[in-house]
Amino acid sequence: MQDQTLIQLIVNAARDKRAEDVVVLDLHDVSSTLDYFIICTASAGLQINAVQNAIREATKENGVHAVGIEGPSDRWVLINFGTVIVHVMTKEARDYYDLEGLWSDARNVAI
What we know:
This protein is α+β, with helices and mostly antiparallel strands. It is 38% helix and 26% strand. It has a 6-stranded mixed β-sheet.
């Protein structure tokens, strides 16, 4: 599956579970090892799990499996699809870690 198709599938699954502030960062020009980050906000642990499960089910139905998962915790789960890394975070975790600020040189991808 091409990256853009995978990204849209993941974004749609996250939004179906009411993830907020979904952002896609293209890291090709700022990282030698990372391609894309998808960052979204969930209100709490239960919603983080719901978003994570929706993303994993949607990708699995399309023959794509996560390479790895870190978490889940009550604040953040990271789902690694190889070229696409998904961060589902609470607003507090997202503000604290500020991945978008850390990767501010990355290009935002319209979704």
